[in-house]
């Protein structure tokens, strides 16, 4: 049984090193456990044995160099409808009047929105959803429920 994606290794500067047929081969050749490879593939900022790993659908073009700051991002309105795709988070931040870190925080789940928008990273090899789950309305705080407290 073959995997639907291959694993590609890049060095610390983002230069292409090697392509592995699957996670098992990558683990064997790199000298790491299978679970470590899976964990690293689920997080674009982690490395294993000095290598950054990415997964690509088989048959798609493999990048010769990566730079996480150059990854495209997608903005969605609070109701979950598609707003716009940006070339990278810095371009989006400048246009939306918010810091690049705020967009990263929204993408990584540390906050729900940035500049009133929901954000997702765009990998380029996947279908971009036109609608996502809306942001739930804010819940009243417990301080609002205390009588006589103003």
UniProtKB/TrEMBL annotation:
Annotated region (Disordered), positions in chain: 108-150
Taxonomic superkingdom: Bacteria
Database matches in InterPro entries: Intron_nuc_1_rpt, WH-like_DNA-bd_sf
Gene3D superfamilies: Winged helix-like DNA-binding domain superfamily/Winged helix DNA-binding domain (1.10.10.10)
Biased composition (Basic and acidic residues): 120-129
Annotated protein name in UniProt: Nuclease-associated modular DNA-binding 1 domain-containing protein
Organism: Candidatus Spechtbacteria bacterium SB0662_bin_43
